[in-house]
Amino acid sequence: MESFAVGPLNKVRRPDRGNYDKAAVHSVLDEGLVAHVGFIDHGRPVVVPMVYGRVGDLFYLHGARAARFAKAMGAGVPVCVTVTLTDGIVVGRSAFHCSMNYRSVVLHGEACLVGDPAEAERALAAVTDHLLPGRWAESRPMIEKELRATAVLRVEIEAASLKARSGPAIDEPEDYELPIWAGVIPLRFVASAPEGDARLEEGVDIPASVQARVRR
Amino acid sequence: MESFAVGPLNKVRRPDRGNYDKAAVHSVLDEGLVAHVGFIDHGRPVVVPMVYGRVGDLFYLHGARAARFAKAMGAGVPVCVTVTLTDGIVVGRSAFHCSMNYRSVVLHGEACLVGDPAEAERALAAVTDHLLPGRWAESRPMIEKELRATAVLRVEIEAASLKARSGPAIDEPEDYELPIWAGVIPLRFVASAPEGDARLEEGVDIPASVQARVRR
Known about the structure:
The structure is a homodimer of 216-residue chains. The radius of gyration of chain A is 21 Å and the shape is globular. Chain A is built from 6 helices and 10 strands. Chain A has a single domain, classed as Pnp Oxidase, Chain A, CATH 2.30.110.10. Chain A is α+β, with helices and mostly antiparallel strands and 216 residues long. At the A-B interface, β2, β3, β6, β7 and α3 of A face β2, β3, β6, β7 and α3 of B. β10 of chain A pairs antiparallel with β9 of chain B, so a sheet runs across the interface.
């Protein structure tokens, strides 16, 4: 089982909650939809939500070439990318033991602008197919002008970890006798029926990508 | 209508997507569950998911007093707090116009440890009731030892903005004639039936807070 090396950047303080297994980290990245990307801009922390894609151990972001992130992050600056899945509200008998069940991946690395057009196109396919698996092949192909307007950033992963909590509330031993409810409220992120565009051409059906996403 | 002042820290580049109205910012903070909190630690950006609470314009975080965030953020350091609600997948006829519908609040400010026990307790009530409205009053009251073990941070909001996208895909004019499906897949975050703790006392019913959360 391949793992990320544990070091000061990614060591999870609570050993029972940390996981460095690559397959586990990848599965959270694949299930998440939006990453929160942190970087330093003019000496201050900035956190922006972004869609993303993964190709093996490579992590990709994209955006308009003119946007703040591309200017601030394009030159090999350190970034921290966090993807969080919220699985439930943990209701303890005391407020002190109320909590969340979650899975959260934190990546540290350097972001750099992708210069190679072939790599940029593979990355954009990965980002599109992460948002909606299979959509890249269904879409009208990207044209030169669009590729030029899009900045693609590759994050070389230096360190990564998965932190997770699951299961019931852990109350104080004496609190289990209290007449207070405790338990877990499971949370899920669900898709509902797709809303077709008002200007769809006649006879165009809902594609496989959308059908699969709604069933998931 | 009260608004946050617009300055270099919070100006949204795309004017059609930016909103500085306090009530709009607050409503996203109130609907979100987890904030992604960015700070600088040893010269690098760090982004951690955290639950939070709001009391008027005051934003509160909490955690174990021993945790990294409290040590790194307790002394009036700049933080960036981002709360993102993902409302839908926007499916364009081209990959270039695939996108997300979302509402995202970014706060900039300084975090400082709350020293006043009364303010700390009000903040912890706000955090608990943000996770599950009404839970603070239902829970076994916090005891001195628990309050001492908990660090509460107040973020003084210097700048804030809401950025949002909604509505259908905006495709290239010539792409509307293509026989390619486009539309929006709405996404929602839902709670399912609560799972009672295995050690519940007999006759303890599901409380109002949990019932309301599941119905929401």
